[in-house]
Amino acid sequence: MVSEYDFWLLDLDGTLVDVEWSYTRDVFDRVGERIGREFTDMEADIIWSGLTGSRDRQLLEWGIDPVAFWEAFHDEEDPLVRAEQTYLHEDAEFVGELEEPVGLVTHCQEFLAEPVLAHVGIEDWFDTILCCTEQTGWKPDPTPVEQVMADLGVAKNGHKGVLAGDGANDVGAAWNAGLDAIHVERVGHDRRGRCVLGDYRVESFDELF
């Protein structure tokens, strides 16, 4: 199916790479101290992995101000430590062999994404990289996806593209931008508590070949 597409877009965290749980737990412990609210393992997992979709909506449901949370979260993240504890999923290595244009659309902030990509050695896999911000919009908004498509020089009509990610927001962004969607389920349906639909639903990219 790889040859079906004229270009590929991919998410980063949870799709191509993941971080050791000890790092995630430590960050949420320190964020909790700053905002005066402890996080259980399940809550930390829900926010880190985006298991319920919109992280901001989930924070609001818990009575947490998203602005205050993310300010503390980004202050507590150490780019070099995070990079050192990040690993590449072996089944994602096919991306480095793609001959078609490849773009990265990630919610991971630039100050974190750059050292992570360098540490796992995949920064040269992508023809363009976009780290979402309030200005670009956030998946499932198609705007950041369409911006990456413009950077790649692929029109919405006339080129068949696909976006692969590990969350419902990735699938939504793909469909909203008129692309096919691959959902790679890294955490399992039981842990997520729901099934995420996509044009392709896999537990490993190896299933695509």
From TrEMBL:
Q: Which domain of life is it from?
A: Archaea
UniProt cross-references to InterPro entries, sorted A to Z: HAD-like_hydrolase_sf (IPR050155), HAD-like_sf (IPR036412), HAD_sf (IPR023214)
Which Gene Ontology molecular function entries are recorded, alphabetically? kinase activity; phosphoglycolate phosphatase activity
What's one GO BP annotation on this UniProt entry? Answer: DNA repair
Key words, A-Z: Kinase, Transferase
Q: Does the keyword Transferase apply?
A: yes
What is the protein name stated in its UniProt record? Answer: 3-phosphoglycerate kinase
